[in-house]
Amino acid sequence: MELNGDTAGTLWSGTTAPCSVRGSTAIHHTAPLPFMVRNRGWVRYCKERERESKKKKVDQCVVPLDFLFLKCIISLGLVVFGYQVHPTVPTPQRTSGGHQCTSNNKNPSLSSYPLITSGKKKIRDLETDKREIVGVFGKTGAGKSSLINAVIGVKNLLPSGSVNACTSVMIKVEDNKQNQAYQADIEFITKEEWKDELWSMLNFLRDNAEQQRSDEEQDDYRDTVEKLSALYGEEWENKSPENLMDYRYFREIQEFVNRKKKTLTCETAKGLAAEFVKYTTSDSKDGEVQRWYWPLVKCVTIKVPNNDLLQHVTLVDLPGNGDRNKSRDKMWKQVVGSCSTVWVVTELNRAAAEKEPWEILKSACSLMGNGGECQRIHFICTKSDEIKDLGSDDHSAAALRALIFKKNIQAKEKVNKEFSQLKMFKKHFNDECFEVFTVSSKEFLRKKYLDSEDTEIPKLQTFLQHLNDCHSETLNYVSGAFGILSLIQGARRQEGADKRKDVYTELEERMDHELDEVRKPMNEICQAFEKCLSEGVEKSNGSWEKVLKSVLHPKNVKGGAFHKILKCVVENGGTHKPKKKKEINLNRKLASCLTDSIDEEFKKTFPNEGKCGPINEALSRFSLDTKKLIEKYKDVELQLIFLKTEVEKVKTKLIKVIRERKKTIYSKAAEFCGEGSMKNMRDTIEKHVRDSKNIMFERAKHEMMNQLRDLMEEILETLENTMLESIELSLKTDGNSIPGLLPEEKQQRPDYPVKVLQAH
């Protein structure tokens, strides 16, 4: 960033100065600095100008509007937090390591000044970037890769069309903030995890080698052979797990051996795709023998340069229903629980009839809903341009276009009807969260029969742009920066010292009253959940035998075949994930009465949509009424402005805490099966549940209530402690807390902020 003395001095003094947004167009801002920092409309205006500039390709760059620029605003308007300040402006001295500040004066460390220490911490707290996660589900061949490539406008980034595409590797796509290259960061599972997986796979193959297999077992057998063959070729046969862990198999991937990430970089998307393909697929051609490393891969993060749609958004290509590998499955659950939006991708011709996308939705429903933070489900029907049966002799473009439109409307009606019949979704989501899209990635590029808008790809692009525009972190940073500026400027003033004690007393009284107002709905929430959970425990005690029978004695499954399935359930702690059929989860089944009893209350208390819900509403009403106090105590206006921004910051922080902690609270009701319950087979499992039922369900209830009360206490403690600290800082700080301030006239010199920046 280049900043000359005239420009820096102008920014400091608060008169007119040119500045620009992240991009290329210079915006000549004519308002004083305080307006520039606090006016949110100005930030939105800058974003609009940024998009316009990219179309016009105007190349004038002065100062970029990003977090770096905002840090500079703070640094220019006050004593810099990052180094010792001396009675005179330190002169930058060139050394081998860059600029260094030197002075003959010796001052105490800045850590001895509470204002400086607190200011540094508050700037660090502003620098957060909570990304919006969009999870993309769909079976191989549904068109996920083509869809992602088309939506973000990058050809050949994700390989498409491969029938051997691996669906167990999670692929994240986000922007590259570090450089202009296309980059792939590859994260591996651990050696210990792979050895355990080898042991499990080889045992499974040995047990099923000579026996007649069901369709499900045949799928699992084929998948296991494919996974071993991808990494070892045919060398895995007749070898032990110890032999297969030999170093020679991992020479090309030292990062796996050393527990590090592997990074690939390339100047083009196509070049990068060719590099990372061996970590995501098995696709040998013409009999070539090649080693594929996807069985060892936990996640691939692809970083794309200069992409506006990915600025605050991460697209994640997700496997259908988790993974048998524990670390991959844990990551899958974490990502699904963090998705603010889910895209379910399937081919249009079978959108309503295809079982797999609906099974994916059902299996992930509680993770996304009450156990997560999903606000929108987009059901995306791909390949809308494919017409197999024309139904007439008219092959004109107009006729084909009309037929495509007709099919799209019919598909949307069928999918919406199917969704309306899924009762379990009503407990977690509102009807408004579900939307159907009919898209064609191919037509979006070639425009043979459909215009771009008709392919509905632009609708998805607009949605991603909306996620970026609504991203609150930048505005929170601006507001927080203005609060810090107000605190420092207020501390420099000597006026109002005699009135600060009165203001302090009023603020304390106001805070106590507001905390009581937040506490009331919390007590009501705890009582409501206590009642719901008590009913759930009673239902669980009366229905566990029926639930257990449905899992341990399923209909239409032969004893020998189910014995193997049950063995997998036992070995995996109560769950079994077949490739195509529905997941078996004994723990979730036993917990179903408990979760059913709280689902409605949970959705009402912790909704995923925006800032609604009784706790969030109580937080939004929390106020120190600083506006009224400013009218009464004009001399401490700047300190009260700081307190107002601190209130907003702590409320934003607590909303994030609630969003994360509610997942833990829900999981305590959903996963509670006692240790040792899976040691043996049917009889042992039934005996264990029968012996434990009197304490098992009650314990689950108490675990959840404890988590809920802990959250309530944390909210109140955070509010009280943060506000008390901020009140102390703002009203008990004076100019003596800022070391080494220059006289006012010297601070106005044009070169003063530049030297401060250089020293920083």
Automatic annotation (TrEMBL):
<dbReference type="InterPro" id="IPR045063">
    <property type="entry name" value="Dynamin_N"/>
</dbReference>
<dbReference type="Pfam" id="PF00350">
    <property type="entry name" value="Dynamin_N"/>
</dbReference>
<protein>
    <recommendedName>
        <fullName>Dynamin N-terminal domain-containing protein</fullName>
    </recommendedName>
</protein>
<dbReference type="InterPro" id="IPR053082">
    <property type="entry name" value="Nuclear_GTPase_SLIP-GC"/>
</dbReference>
<dbReference type="GO" id="GO:0003924">
    <property type="term" value="F:GTPase activity"/>
</dbReference>
<dbReference type="InterPro" id="IPR027417">
    <property type="entry name" value="P-loop_NTPase"/>
</dbReference>
<feature type="region of interest" description="Disordered">
    <location>
        <begin position="91"/>
        <end position="110"/>
    </location>
</feature>
<feature type="region of interest" description="Disordered">
    <location>
        <begin position="738"/>
        <end position="760"/>
    </location>
</feature>
<feature type="domain" description="Dynamin N-terminal">
    <location>
        <begin position="134"/>
        <end position="356"/>
    </location>
</feature>
